[in-house]
Amino acid sequence: MPERHSEDVNRQPVVEVRNLVVDRGSTRAVDDVSFSVPTGTVMGLLGPSGCGKSSLMRAVVGVQIVAGGSVTVLGQPAGSAPLRDRIGYVTQAPSVYDDLTVSENLTFFGRVLGVGPDEVDRCIEAVDLTRHRDKVVNNLSGGERSRASLAVALLGEPELLVLDEPTVGLDPVLRRDLWALFHRLAAGGAAVFVSSHVMDEAERCDRLLLMREGRILADEAPSELLTRTGAGAIEDAFLRLVEGEGVR
After folding, report:
1. What CA–CA distance (Å, rounded) separates 108 from 111?
2. CB neighbours (10 Å) of residue 110?
3. pLDDT score of 245
4. CB 40 within 8 A of CB 203
5. Are 186 and 5 in contact (CB under 8 A)?
6. Is 206 helix (H, G, I), strand (E, B) or coil?
7. pLDDT tens, 150-182?
8. 242: Cβ–Cβ under 8 A, 6 or more apart, which residues?
9. pLDDT digits (tens, 9 = 90+) for 11-40
C-alpha cells in the first residue's frame, strides 16, 4: 500500500468547487456540490454508477455545461485556455487513435504539447506498455487501451490529473501499480482526482468524496470516515451514511 501523505492545512487548493449544479436533460446530475482538491493529494471520488461522478469530473476539466455554481482550477475558471497543458484528463472511453501505435499516439500528442521523445518513453514506461509500444491501438486489449490513454494524460507532467475510473477492467497487480504511480505523482506536487465505483479502492486515497444521487455524502480522509461512522470498511461506512445511521 502506498505511503499516506499527512494532511497539510496550508496546502493551496488546485481545484475549488462551490455550489456546483449540473443538469443532464431533466436529471439533476450534480446537486449543489462544494469541495476542494489540495496539491500533493490523491483525492478519490467514489460512488455507484450513475451518481454524477463523470458530470462532476467533466465540470472540473471545463467541458461540461453547468447550471450554477463555480469551478476554479489553478486559480482560473475551469476550461480556460491557459489550463489546457496543465491538466491531464482520462475519460472512461479511451481517447487515443485506433489506427496508430501506442508510440505514434504519444509522439503525436507530445508534439502538440511541445515535449520530446524522452517524455514519450517515460510515460509509456510509467503505464507498463513498453512491450506494446509498437502495437496498433486497435489490436490492444481494453485495459491496454485505457493505459495508453493514461500515458497520454501524463505527458508534460500536468499539475492536475483528472482520471475517470482509470482502473476499471485491470488486473489486481496493475491496479496496485497504477495507484502507486498516482501517489508518486502526488508526492511530486501534482493533485490527482480519481473516480471509481469500487469501494475497496477508497483506502488507497488520501482523501475521499463519497457521492450518491448527485450529492456529496462525505469529504474526509478514509480513517476519519471510518472513525466517524464506526464502520470497519468504507463500503459499510457508505451504507451507514445512505441509511442515515447515527455515527460515533
Report:
1. 5
2. 19
3. 53
4. no
5. yes
6. coil
7. 999 999 999 999 999 888 877 888 888 889 989
8. 212, 217
9. 679 999 999 999 999 999 999 999 999 999
The set of cell numbers assigned to 240 is 451507514
CA 195, 198, 199, 203 dihedral sign is negative
* Residues across the chain: 248
Q: What is the pTM of this model?
A: 0.87
**What whole-number distance in Å separates Cα of residue 90 and Cα of residue 123?**
14
Give CA–CA dist 161/151, Å, rounded: 11
Cα separations in angstroms, 22 against 65, 72, 175, 223: 7, 15, 30, 30
Q: Are 52 and 29 in contact (CB under 8 A)?
A: yes
Q: Is the CB of residue 19 less than 8 Å from the CB of residue 69?
A: yes
DSSP three-state, residue 155: coil
DSSP H helical ranges for the chain = 53-61, 102-113, 117-126, 142-154, 172-187, 222-229, 234-243
